[in-house]
Amino acid sequence: MAEETIAVIPQDDENRMIEVVRVDERYAELRSLCYGRGVGWFTQGTVRVDLESVQSLVSSLLESATPATAETPDNVISLPVGSRRRSRSRRVGRKTGT
User: Which domain holds residue 9?
Assistant: First the structure.
């Protein structure tokens, strides 16, 4: 199986991004990429995780990101949070200030 980029997640700094790559049937990698003038994009660091751990990570993040109904103010509309696989050309997860 060839590597497949699942998502490219831009960061606050336009010279940084996180790339989520499925390496094979068992593992994925989270790659921190930086852009250097004259060098281009390069990998700053890599974390390799098994796919079972990825599922646990996603579940944990979704649970922590979903506000409790009782704490949601009346003027806020809660939207469902879902996970979808992203293609290489799409960018996901843009950070915003809160």
Answer: 4-64
